[in-house]
Design goal:
Blueprint: E1 4-9, H1 16-29, E2 34-39, E3 45-49, E4 52-56, H2 57-60, H3 66-77
Parallel strand pairs: 1-2
Antiparallel strand pairs: 1-3, 3-4
Length: 96
């Protein structure tokens, strides 16, 4: 397929669990995809497909929608350029 998904997540914030959840979803649909996850900057959950940023938690304050990310992977496998991923609904928000 030749598609690489790279996820930068904040380990201090506990986002590794979200990365594992995303990885499980992606690997179930695309077992041969190159999927990399690494600890990065604080509060990050940034997803790149073939080097193009498709989701930024720093910008949206939400996680990526896994089904839409799968659709992006399908589109890229058909030769299209990566597009911005939809986000999961924000279910909890604490304002201090």
């Amino acid at each position: 397929m030749g598609i690489e998904v790279d996820v930068e997540f904040c380990g201090t914030c506990g986002y590794f669990k979200k990365f594992e959840e995303l990885a499980q979803h992606i690997k179930a649909k695309y077992p041969n995809i190159e999927l990399n996850g690494h600890e990065g900057r604080r509060a990050t959950f940034e997803v790149k497909v073939n080097g193009t940023l498709v989701h930024s938690k720093l910008t949206t304050l939400a996680y990526p929608d896994y089904e839409d990310l799968s659709a992006i992977i399908d589109e890229v496998s058909q030769g299209k350029e990566p597009r911005t991923c939809k986000q999961q609904p924000i279910t909890s928000c604490i304002i201090a």
